[in-house]
Each structure stands twice: as C-alpha cells, then as structure tokens.
Amino acid sequence: MLAAERRDHLLGLLAREGKIVAKDVAAELGISEDSVRRDLRDLAAEGLCQRVYGGALPVSPAVVDYAARQSVAPEGKERVASVAAGLVRPGGSLILDGGTTALAVAHALPRDLACTVITHSPTIAAALLDHPQAELFLIGGRVFKHSAVTCGAAAVEAAQNISADLCLLGVTGVHPEAGLTTGDAEEAAMKRALSARAADTYVLASSEKIGTASQFRVLPWQKVSGLITDADPHDPAIEQLRTLGVEILTAT
Which of 9, 77, 106, 156 fits a 20 to 30 Å CA distance from 164? Predict the structure, then answer.
C-alpha cells in the first residue's frame, strides 16, 4: 500500500472508529508499527490527529485562538450554558473557568441572581459587571491570551486559597479513554487547581469536543461530578462514558 493510500486509510479509520491502534493497523496492513507511527506523526504535524500512547485520537477543533472559537458551534455552547447556569443556586458560590462556553454561561446567569463567582478570566468578570447581586473575585496571574485567562504559578497559588460549591470547567477534548484534555500544560494545571477547590465539578462540552483529545490531560473522569453536553445521547463516546459511571446532563 502506498503512503497516500495508508494516509487515507488511517483518516477513514479515525472517522469511523474514533481512534487508531497502531499495532492493529500494522497487523491489518502487514506493515511494521514503526511505519504506522511515522504516518501518525505526519498526520499529527498537519493537525489531523492527536497522537497518544499506542496510536491516535481525533484532534479537537477547539484549539484555535479565542476569537476564532467564538464562531465554533455557538448554538451548542448556548444550550450547554443554559443547563450549566441552572446548577448555580441563589446564594451559592461558583468557580467559572474561562473560554467561550464559560462566557456563554456568564451570559446565561440570571441578572438578579445573588451568588459569588470566582474566575481567572477577565472576560468572564467583565460579562458579570452588570449583575448587581453577583459578588466577583478575579484571580490574577500571567494572561494566557489563547483562552483569555490567567495561569502560571501565581494564579495556581491564588486558586489554592479559594473554595466554592461548584466549578464549571471548560476543556478542548472529551474522550472516554484520554479523559479531559486541553492544549496547554499551564492551562491544564490551572484547571486542576480550580477544580480541586470545588465540592462539585461539571465539565462544559459542546458536541464538537466529544470523542476528541488534545495534548495535555486535565483530569480523569473519577475527579468530576458530570458532563454537560449537547451531543447526541447515542454518540458512542457518550454511551461509553455512561458505562464508566459518568453523569451526563443533556443540553437540548
């Protein structure tokens, strides 16, 4: 099989199965695992897959810059945000992550809701300035412009001194095996620090993120309370998550 044919085969397999296992492909095609791994490296360099141990997964479309992400699945994000906003109780405290879905949550919160919102996103804080009964705490640190959030050592240290009832966390990849992932190591560390300070953590994920992965792991499924998504309840990845005991809140 020519290299171009192997490439098409791998991309087709990724689309159909949602993952590539290098040893299985090598056995199927009668080639070495090294050859498959080289093909996967080439595809990953083009942004067409996310390499993981033993093979590859679909790459998340949510790794583009902040401005571009605002035009990705806006209706799905609004549906997810509506369900997420319903989890915030009057008088409660919320850690709200950054990103475009979290910004949709900020817009979905009732304007007269009395609550405390802790965030490391200047855009989230600005969006809640016209909520007169919402007390705002903004965590400072180095600004990661890709997601318009603060991160780094100072931000993580500040996060360790807060606590809340609920954390609403955004990620770029949601996969039953890879867990919850994002594209930057420091941002992943910040998300872990925020989640650790809440009694419950729910993940915000519009459908385009389901079954995909990014480079850096944020959390395993055992560390979150549930997933809020507008993905089809019969999506294979969603069904697999249910078998793992993950609570799925469907946003319709």
Answer: 77
